[in-house]
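Troubleshooting log. The previous structure file for this entry was overwritten by mistake, so regenerating from the original sequence record. Sequence copied from the archived sheet and checked twice against the printout by T.R.
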Amino acid sequence: QQIMERESSAVNVFAPLPVAKKQWFKSSAGKYVRLEQFDGSEEKMSLCVNIFNSELTEPYVDFTYMHFMLGWKDLCVLAYEYDGTGEPAAATGDAPATGGKFVAAIVSSVARKAFNKPLRGYVAMLAVKPESRKNKIASVLVTASVDLMRVKNCDEVSLETPSDAIPALSLYTNLGFAKTKFLARYYLQGQDAYRLKLWLKPSANAESFKQQLARQQALMAKNEKTAAIAATADATD
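Regenerated output below.
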């Protein structure tokens, strides 16, 4: 219990974004963004809640937003896109940039299920406005969130995404995530999902890790097949 309490205190210490991410930087050709951590204000809370409600597969109740955003403020990161002409002015020292158009947000958490379980980061929500989705902002946000989890000494990061969300699956697999579980009818509307995982620390037994991942993916394939049969039966009925 004492070890868990000390670890909890360490994990909950605010992990700041690197200075370079708070200033304007290029996300893709001709596009500049800056990142900002949630400051606890109602204004920023409303920005995040509105974009999540409009862009996510299913909406959440207010308590869920408050749980994640107020519980892990440093892991709630907002993205602003430069809306001026030309290139943004060069940064002066360590001062963060200001202005821009709010276009995306990510919310994550860090927790350990039990004393002997890995310290797991969890990407709870990620949303990008449609007009900014080809500017690699989602990749920037996920990378920033994972880097903050590394600072908190996480062992792994997990998330869920709809099984038919091809762009999202491509995003996560390109960043090193692997599909580990198929979740039939995971969402309220009956939509299937994948659970994906990114390991941040090398396994003590690499061969054992590979075998475990192979078993997980074999089970996932079996569950996918079972769900497909069930869907066919439903359609026939």
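The mean pLDDT is 86. Archived copy saved in two places this time.
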